[in-house]
Amino acid sequence: MSAQGLPMKVPAPGLPARVRIHEVGARDGLQNEKETVPTEVKAEFIHRLAAAGLTTIEATSFVHPKWVPQLADAEALFPLLDDIAEAREVSLPVLVPNERGLERALALGARSIAVFGSATETFAARNLNRTVDESLAMFEPVVARAKAEKVHVRGYLSMCFGDPWEGAVPVAQVVKVAKALMDLGCDELSLGDTIGVATPGHVRELLTALNDSAVPTSSIGVHFHDTYGQALSNTLAALQHGVTTVDASAGGLGGCPYAKSATGNLATEDLVWMLNGLGIETNVDLTALTATSVWLAEHLGRPSPSRTVRALTPPPSSPSHKE
């Protein structure tokens, strides 16, 4: 929060008292970087995020390096985070695409994993080289093994609000795949607006349809991209519906290497600013978080796209000119 005590807290009726931020910057954010981010920088980034108060920080992905080379150092990175999980009781979920990925993650002691599905056939083919049904079949033994090991399982569902190749995605189609993911045994479902085309009414309609299909709001998280500047308004619509888990990326990093129209994620700082103003507890220190994103932006060689980071960061002083 800024030195002037802003934003002023003005609660709104019908909103949750607390929101859990599922921080995705270290995985979803960095996977789209063109230049390789050193492992030690990633580890420091995650440590700083934990120090800022984030308690769920998606650490990396155990995919084949050929597909996501930015995350090829998963085996080297994950052991560097042991102290966070132990000292700060921070959950460090990792993405696993298949049984081999799960084996790698379990070998390093991962206690929370995520599988990544698609609501549309085109993106399933481009991202997983499978049909939707084939991808669900691939996830089935992964989820079953994870649950047998008492590992928390999140199911990501991409293209819930629109697809760059197929256009509008029918709500019923999204619900069908979402329900199938939950029926596999996922503990949690993250609804992905992968290309950032959702609007608040669409968000409310999908959440209602999921509830009608016996997917409880308590199991749902939302994952909005800010392509059209709608991420915060869509988040507010989800909060009004009762959602208490929101995905966000420090500094607004991210995108999707398999969907070129997908721009950055909702910035964690922008989300925290709004939640602070609404009096919703997050346990996140906005000053420390902003400093973390500024630090990472320096390593990446460009300014953070987060509006809040820019607003809270003093501009560099101009050199004085003397005659």
UniProtKB/TrEMBL annotation:
GO terms for molecular function: DNA binding; lyase activity. InterPro entries: Aldolase_TIM, HMGL, PYR_CT. It comes from the Bacteria. It comes from Streptomyces cavourensis. This is Hydroxymethylglutaryl-CoA lyase. Residues 19-290 form the Pyruvate carboxyltransferase domain. Residues 313-323 have a biased composition (Pro residues). It holds the Pfam family HMGL-like. Keywords: DNA-binding, Lyase, Metal-binding.
